[in-house]
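Pinned message: reference record for Fungal-type protein kinase domain-containing protein
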Amino acid sequence: MVWFSMLAPILSRDRFDKMEYYEHLCLLVALINGTISFKLSRENIDELEKGWLSW
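Predicted structure (tokens):
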């Protein structure tokens, strides 16, 4: 989890043929980090739900 949430965005930059793949990875990392956050408000939960559904 540490590798994915902290190192993947840095180590994966400029490694994909298309920038959209990297952006998709970064969105996944943001969703994972938001999901494992210790403080979640109702607004955060709603945003995460929309994010996961669109991902």
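Pinned by admin. Summary line: DSSP finds three helices and no strands in the chain.
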